[in-house]
Amino acid sequence: MTGSKNGHGSGAGAGNGPSGRSRGGKVKVRNTHRRTTSSNQWLARHLNDPYVAAAKAAGYRSRAAFKLKELDAQFSLLGQVDRVVDLGAAPGGWCQVVLERRPRATVVGIDLLPIEPIAGVTLFEKDILDDDTEALLLGALGGQADIVLSDMAANTVGHQMTDYLRTMGLIEAGLDMAGRLLRPGGTFVAKVLAGGGDGTLTALLKQSFATVKHVKPPASRKGSSEWYVVAQGFKPRSPDA
Questions:
Q1: Which end of the chain is more exposed for a tag (fewer CB within 10 A), N or C?
Q2: pLDDT tens track of the chain, all 241 residues?
Q3: Which domain holds residue 83?
Q4: Bias regions of kind Basic residues — which residues (predicted)?
Q5: In this structure, what DSSP letter does residue 13 have?
Q6: What burial class does residue 240 get, using C-beta atoms within 10 Å of its C-beta: 0-12 exposed, 13-18 middle, 19+ buried?
């Protein structure tokens, strides 16, 4: 099943805020029995993250919007696109960035989680692995995609190998879908792990794209293992290949 780029909730109740302002301007999270130590640590990072504040000020639904903006600035991903698919689109920040850059583009987002409507975007609450997903997305696009974006991430269980395999499965599912949606010369952008160094995945990408590059945009937290792969110049395989 597909994943989502939704983050953790704060777990704070009304009238009992999770934090207070400390010296130096940083937010100090109050410990509570309702949250684990790791949840408190995540919340502290989140509340003190300048990208979170910037996303709120700009009206973006998530800080992840800045990752796509930074990737676009580096690789000129969105300047000429007319048809765009966002896999794992919730909560919608990447769709917002696409429309900001290309207001007339046809943008289609899909996620297992519900997404609040975005004017100008067609949204599906659906699994990309469903048999009818390809036809549904192509129908909404009105043709093949210029770019397929994927910020999908598997829900983690805390076991390193299990989490790795779940995430790799999502990446490969996204690549398979991109191969069926993209026009010749199109682009695939996806979240990967640890620089995308998995040999099998890199080999698959190089078979299907003219260039494959790995990058960690500044908005990606330094402590995380996430990187992004930018694969450009899609080369469709012949039916007999």
A1: C
A2: 445 553 333 333 333 444 444 444 454 545 555 656 555 444 445 555 677 888 788 888 989 999 999 999 999 999 999 999 999 999 999 999 999 999 999 999 999 999 999 999 999 999 999 999 999 999 999 999 999 999 998 777 777 778 778 888 888 999 999 999 999 999 999 998 775 556 788 888 999 999 999 999 999 878 788 899 999 999 998 665 5
A3: 65-234
A4: 23-36
A5: B
A6: exposed
What is the CB neighbour count within 10 angstroms for residue 191? Answer: 25
Query: How far is residue 213 from each of residues 193, 195, 227, 232, measured CA to CA in Å?
Result: 13, 9, 10, 9
> 109 in a domain, yes or no?
yes
> For the chain, how far is it from start to end, CA to CA, in angstroms?
28
Residues annotated within the binding site are 92, 94, 111, 127, 151
What is the pTM for the complete model shown?
0.79
Residues 6+ apart with CB under 8 A from 155: 3, 166
Catalytic residue list: 191
Taking a C-beta distance cutoff of 8 angstroms, is the pair 174, 150 a contact?
yes
- Look at residue 161 and tell me if it is in a domain: yes
CB 186 within 8 A of CB 146: yes
- On whether residue 228 sits in a domain, the answer given is yes
Domains: count for the chain: 1
The CATH number given to whatever domain includes residue 188 is 3.40.50.150
Rounded Cα distance between 195 and 213, Å, is 9
CB-based contacts of 35-39 (< 8 A; 24+ apart in sequence): 35/11, 39/8, 39/11
Strands 106-111 and 145-150 come out as unpaired
Q: What is the separation of C-alpha 218 from the centre of its chain, rounded to a whole number of angstroms?
A: 15
- Say whether the peptide bond before residue 239 is cis (omega within 30 degrees of 0): no
Tokens standing for residue 84: 């765009």
